[in-house]
Structures are given as structure tokens and as C-alpha cells.
């Protein structure tokens, strides 16, 4: 698309922002190709909880890009002043063009990875790219500020999934570091053997962490046996070079458990095990899961001095996680015999969440309802959405019927209650 002149540029901007969210970056890449020839494009848009980091283009490049590549560019970029130069990306020195915008509260950065023989971008083309990126990020900000309930729900769900994945990675890091410390503290390995063993452990941990990080999204449920196997894999490095013998009791069930239940159970076991390993006289720890009709029961039992209590078990990592799922924790310590920590996590929520009353509405009906909730009359809504007043009346009638309300005021109140 030729962008010389204000009308073509405005048309191009319109063509970009009218796309669905998932198609904006590909369309922007196509529009910018005439200004800045590039092989791949990436964005980091901090407004978006659903997917702040997006890429498009050459799979060889985008498959090796991450938020770590764009975060420094966002932090160092100057809004309104594009930068071009070379960066080490995807394993090679590559020419790039970077535009930063502060149209959203925390900013957004656009990265164009160019061809190796690309000529520098002239000032007029750079200014036009910057202007288009500002328009796109302003559009993002408006969508974030005026998000429909459905979009908000998707963002919350994605943010929750991301939080669980990050927590899982944090636990994996903790387990890897604990394993390394166990090697370095071992009295049975000489220096050379300890270095070789620590290197092998670190490499294995990095491979596992990369596999975890590249997982697109945690599944909603997973088989109990598979969830326990993942736990077992993360526990073995903790005791590999320790005199403590780890006994594992996998659940005798083919049922599936919710991802948040499985994750919480793994967090509890790792936290309790690491606390148990701090006791000098422990020689054996048993870890077991058992599924009943209503709950997952987690047990960690050691043969230590029997002095552990609730206060020793990092309440921020155990009790608070259990509270979220209405779980409970019991600690039975017998001096001289050991400690048994048992947790029970309900497999089902105590009450189904109320369904979203707006789910029955179509996209256009949601647009009409949002403006109706702001107090706009039919004529104003028609002008804003570029439709006729009779069409607005038709949509309002459908909205009242689908929501089971009798007036515009009731519909507006329901929208505000949900949003």
C-alpha cells in the first residue's frame, strides 16, 4: 500500500484498527511493508493482560523472540523518536527499526526486524510509522478503558493462567537451586565431581524450565497420575545427592483434577519437603496423593524430630493458597517420631459462579448496550455506530428481551453490575 499523502495514510490507519485484535499486528505489518521492508514484527503492549507480547512474520525469527528482547527497548525508547540500528536477535546481528509510544499508560513498543541489506529508513517514513503506531496504541488504550464484559473476562482468565504458569516456574527455579545447593554441600563428592554434577543438574533444569516457559497455556484439567508424575520429576533433584530417601505414593485413580488444584497440591508438597529437608535427622520422607469423591488429599510424612508446626510451613505459600480453594491443612508432629502434614483440597467449587447475563448478546447488541448504559439516546447511538435509528430501536428491543428486563434503565443497571 502506497502511503504518500494524508488520505492514504488515514485509510491505512483505519484498515489496521478496524481489524479484530488478533489481526491488528499482521495487518499493520502489511501496511508498513511499503515503508520499512522487514522480515518479522513484534510488539509489547503493556495495556493488555490477555496477550501483551505478539509476533508475526518469519517463523525462524519470531520463534526465538521473547518479551525479554522487547522489555529493554520499551524501557529505553523515547516516544515519538523512532530508533534504527542493529541488535542481537534470534541468534544473529540484525538491523531493526523500533518505535515507542506512550499513548497507553505504561507504553508500548513496536519492533521491525529488517533484511540484512536494508537501507536506512528516511525521516518522513519513520515519522509515518511512528504516527501509525501511536494511532494503534491509542486504539488499544480505548479498548482497555471501555472493554466489554466478555473481553474483561477473557483478560482475567488469561491473567490468572499466566499467574499460575509464573508461579509454577518460580517453584521450578526454587527446586533447581535447592538441588544445586545439595550438590555443593555434599560431603560424598569431590570438587571435580561436584562441578560436573552441578553442571548436569543446571542443564537439565534449564531444559525443563524452557519447556515450561514455552507452554502456550496450561490445560484446564489434567489426569491425576500425570499431575503427580510432574510433581515427582520436580522433587527428585531435591534429594538426589541427599541421604534422605524419598518415597512416592501416586494416586490410584484415572480421574482428572483441575489445573489450579493440581498446581496448589504441587506447591504444598514442595514447600513442605524443603522445610522437612532442613531438619538434620531426617532419613526418609513419604509423599502421597489420594483422591476421594470430593477432594484431593495430600500427605507429606517424615521421620525427623517431630518439631514442625503450622508456623514453619511458609503460610504465604501454603495456607493462603489453600484458602483460595477452600482447602485445609493439618500438622501432626510427634516429638522423636516425625511430622505428618496433610492437606485436603476440594475437587469442586462450593458454588457454581453466576452465569454472565450478557453472554446471550451479540457483538452489535453489546455495543448498543454499552452506549445505552452511558445514557446515550437512540440518535446519538446511531451516529456513533453509523447505523439508522430504526436499527438501534430494533437492537434495544432485542436486548430487553434477551436480558429479561422491561426498560432501558434496568438494562443499563444490569450492564453496570456486570461490567
Automatic annotation (TrEMBL):
UniProt cross-references to Pfam families, sorted A to Z: GerE
Protein's recorded name: Helix-turn-helix transcriptional regulator
Organism of this sequence: Streptomyces inhibens
GO biological process, one term: regulation of DNA-templated transcription
Domain called HTH luxR-type: residue spans: 354-419
PANTHER family the record matches: DNA-BINDING TRANSCRIPTIONAL ACTIVATOR DEVR_DOSR
Annotated InterPro entries: HATPase_C_sf, Sig_transdc_resp-reg_C-effctor, Tscrpt_reg_LuxR_C, WH-like_DNA-bd_sf
Keywords: DNA-binding, Transcription, Transcription regulation
GO molecular function: DNA binding
Amino acid at each position: 500500500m502506497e502511503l504518500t499523502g494524508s488520505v492514504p495514510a488515514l485509510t491505512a490507519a483505519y484498515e489496521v484498527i478496524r481489524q479484530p485484535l488478533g489481526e491488528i499486528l499482521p495487518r499493520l505489518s502489511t501496511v508498513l511493508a511499503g515503508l520499512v521492508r522487514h522480515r518479522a514484527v513484534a510488539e509489547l503492549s503493556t495495556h493488555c493482560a490477555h496477550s501483551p507480547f505478539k509476533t508475526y512474520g518469519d517463523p525462524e525469527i519470531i520463534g526465538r523472540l521473547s518479551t525479554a528482547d522487547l522489555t529493554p527497548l520499551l524501557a529505553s525508547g523515547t516516544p515519538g523518536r523512532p530508533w534504527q540500528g542493529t541488535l542481537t536477535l534470534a541468534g544473529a546481528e540484525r538491523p531493526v527499526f523500533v518505535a515507542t509510544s506512550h499513548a497507553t499508560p505504561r507504553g508500548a513498543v513496536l519492533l521491525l526486524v529488517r533484511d540484512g541489506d536494508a537501507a536506512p529508513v528516511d525521516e518522513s517514513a519513520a515519522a509515518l510509522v511512528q504516527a501509525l503506531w501511536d494511532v494503534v496504541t491509542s486504539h488499544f488504550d480505548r479498548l482497555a478503558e471501555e472493554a466489554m464484559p466478555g473481553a474483561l473476562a477473557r483478560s482475567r482468565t488469561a491473567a490468572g493462567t499466566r499467574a499460575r504458569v509464573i508461579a509454577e516456574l518460580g517453584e521450578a527455579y526454587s527446586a533447581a537451586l535447592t538441588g544445586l545447593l545439595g550438590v555443593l554441600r555434599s560431603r560424598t563428592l569431590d570438587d571435580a565431581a561436584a562441578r560436573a554434577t552441578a553442571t548436569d543438574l543446571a542443564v537439565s533444569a534449564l531444559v525443563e524450565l524452557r519447556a515450561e516457559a514455552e507452554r502456550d497455556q496450561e490445560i484446564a484439567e489434567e489426569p491425576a497420575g500425570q499431575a503427580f508424575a510432574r510433581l515427582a520429576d520436580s522433587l527428585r533433584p531435591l534429594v538426589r545427592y541427599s541421604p534422605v530417601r524419598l518415597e512416592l505414593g501416586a494416586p490410584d485413580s484415572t480421574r482428572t483434577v483441575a489445573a489450579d488444584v493440581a498446581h496448589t497440591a504441587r506447591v504444598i508438597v514442595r514447600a513442605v519437603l524443603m522445610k522437612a529437608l532442613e531438619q538434620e535427622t531426617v532419613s526418609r520422607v513419604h509423599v502421597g496423593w489420594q483422591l476421594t469423591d470430593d477432594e484431593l488429599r495430600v500427605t507429606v510424612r517424615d521421620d525427623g524430630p517431630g518439631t514442625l508446626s503450622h508456623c514453619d510451613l511458609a503460610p504465604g505459600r501454603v495456607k493462603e493458597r489453600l484458602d483460595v480453594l477452600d482447602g485445609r491443612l493439618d500438622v501432626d508432629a510427634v516429638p522423636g517420631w516425625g511430622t505428618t502434614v496433610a492437606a485436603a483440597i476440594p475437587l469442586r467449587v462450593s458454588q457454581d459462579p453466576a452465569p454472565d447475563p450478557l453472554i446471550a448478546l451479540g457483538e452489535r447488541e453489546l455495543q448498543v448496550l454499552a452506549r445505552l448504559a452511558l445514557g446515550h439516546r437512540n440518535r446519538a447511538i446511531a451516529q456513533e455506530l453509523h447505523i439508522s435509528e430504526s436499527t438501534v430501536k430494533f437492537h434495544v428491543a432485542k436486548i430487553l428481551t434477551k436480558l429479561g428486563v422491561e426498560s432501558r434503565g434496568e438494562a443499563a443497571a444490569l450492564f453496570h453490575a456486570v461490567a
